[in-house]
Design a protein that fits this description.
The chain has about 180 residues and is an all-beta fold. About 0% of the residues lie in helices and about 40% in strands.
Length: about 180
């Protein structure tokens, strides 16, 4: 799945399949300017910053069990968000400090370090990397991903895929080749 925020006409947190299909709103009320998003891949939670409402909130992948982690004026200065173990990590855009916040109750907010001009943050750790299994976009005997001549996108599951073409090309009637 792909998770993303939008604060155009109606602010929301959404998810869809990797090919853009099955787009679903998971948060569409009491939300104004969601500007950063982080996933807890293990427990299947979505965290986001709302700089207008000055809050950090969380829901499960279906949009249930919504909770506010923390609220306050300091939120409007945050950008970027990632989750690791018991904490959320974000950047304070005023002084470019990395902040650590307890993700269960919003306490223990602590500045850890400064990074000049930082606007995004990510944590990479072996446990959070999904195990690779066979999938529909694996290279075929001719080296084409999922048998697609240009781009292969996973669809509703790891066994389904959609072929797409690079800009300037159109997908052929076979659903795999680009012309």
């Amino acid at each position: 799945k792909l998770f993303f925020t939008d604060y155009g006409n109606a602010a929301k947190v959404e998810r869809c399949d990797m090919d853009g299909m099955n787009r679903t709103w998971i948060v569409d009320s009491k939300i104004e300017q969601p500007t950063a998003l982080a996933l807890d891949l293990i427990n299947k939670y979505v965290y986001w910053l709302d700089i207008y409402l000055e809050s950090v909130e969380v829901v499960d992948y279906q949009g249930r069990r919504r909770q506010t982690i923390t609220k306050g004026r300091q939120i409007r200065h945050l950008c970027g968000l990632t989750v690791f173990e018991n904490y959320l990590y974000t950047i304070n855009s005023d002084d470019f400090s990395i902040l650590r916040i307890n993700r269960y109750n919003g306490t223990d907010a602590q500045a850890l370090a400064r990074l000049d001009d930082a606007k995004e943050i990510r944590v990479y750790q072996k446990r959070t990397q999904a195990a690779v299994r066979s999938h529909a976009c694996e290279a075929d005997p001719y080296g084409m991903p999922g048998g697609c001549s240009h781009v292969c996108l996973l669809s509703t599951s790891h066994k389904a895929r959609t072929c797409r073409c690079r800009t300037g090309f159109i997908l052929g009637s076979d659903g795999r080749s680009c012309k």
